[in-house]
Amino acid sequence: MKNKKSVDCVVVTFNRLDLLKECVEAIESQTYPIEHFFIIDNCSTDNTWEYLQSIKSEKIVPIHLEKNLGGAGGFNAGLKTFINKSNADYVWIMDDDTIPTSTALEKLIDKSNISSHLGFLCSNVRWQDNSVAVMNIPSPDKEWNKYSDQGVTKVKSASFVSIMFPRNVVKKVGYPITDFFIWGDDVEYTLRITHDYHLDGFMVNDSLVEHKIKQNIATDLVKEESLGRVKRYYLAQRNTIFYLKKHSTKKEVFKATIRQGVKVPIKALIKSKDHRFYRAWVSVKGTAAGLFFNPKIEKVEKRDNFK
Nearest 5°: CA angle at 176, between 174 and 178? Predict the structure, then answer.
């Protein structure tokens, strides 16, 4: 191995024990070994914690949260654990439904010297039929093809489905925002890195992982089939407006406000197959909330108190 850099892994899980087991097996089979494997149990109710306690491995460190903090809170806790419980050079994070190929981490490490201003490296995320995972397509940088001859694509933001951060970057930019709960915490965090701190983000084209989601479609409030998930779009709309306010232009905020606050509600009223007024109201309410949403961005302290 030409690079002798240490890497920890963080996986956040909630009530998906079978997928978690598959994820753990894939991570333990990596050609580039990890040092510590922090598994954040978001207060699961499906025997996940019992399973984690039964694992006999010095590398695996299970962390049990007292309540479900969503993916955002889980990754916040995971990165705090990495900073406070380890000295590894990098942290590689993912959801429990991420199944990395055996060389996924090795390929990320191979590109860790690509920039002297490296912010993050993310994997090429695929669905079960090897097509591109639509919901995990990174946002390309305006110079997206500048490094194409080196097998990477320059990106502005990416998802938390297999992404690696240098320790010094986490210490510099802080932690994901717990108050997001779900949706948008990954975009906000990676935009914070590239936009606010002017660091470089890259997708490593041959670092392949599978995202084991049921359908390969983007999130869509108008077409969402699960009524239980419809109410969560409030968070998506709110969080989107916030991270655009924080890390983009007034023009982009205005465009998103019109899209989410006017166009999506109208489309829901016309095209949604059920609960049309409810869907429209969720979008309007979330968009309005985003204009006033101002959560705290936690910075890394010298000694964070993590419980």
Answer: 125
Under CATH, which architecture does the 7-211 domain have?
Answer: Alpha-Beta Complex (3.90)
Distance of alpha carbon 65 from alpha carbon 68, whole angstroms = 7
Residue in the structure block whose two tokens are 């419809």 = 230
Could you tell me the pTM of the whole model? 0.96
Answer whether 200's CB lies under 8 Å from 118's CB.
yes
Q: Are strands 98-100 and 200-211 parallel, antiparallel or unpaired?
A: antiparallel
Q: Tokens 């869907």 — which residue?
A: 279
Domain boundaries, the chain: 7-211, 227-292
- Give the whole-angstrom CA distance, residue 155 versus residue 142: 8
**Residue 229: enclosing H or E segment and its boundaries?**
helix 227-230
**pLDDT, one tens digit for every residue, the chain (307 residues):** 444 899 999 999 999 999 999 999 999 999 999 999 999 999 999 999 999 999 989 999 999 999 999 999 999 999 999 999 999 999 999 999 999 999 999 999 999 999 999 999 999 999 999 999 999 999 999 999 999 999 999 999 999 999 999 999 999 999 999 999 999 999 999 999 999 999 999 999 999 999 999 999 999 999 999 999 999 999 999 999 999 999 999 999 999 999 999 999 999 999 999 999 999 999 999 999 999 999 999 999 875 544 4
End-to-end Cα spacing for the chain: 36
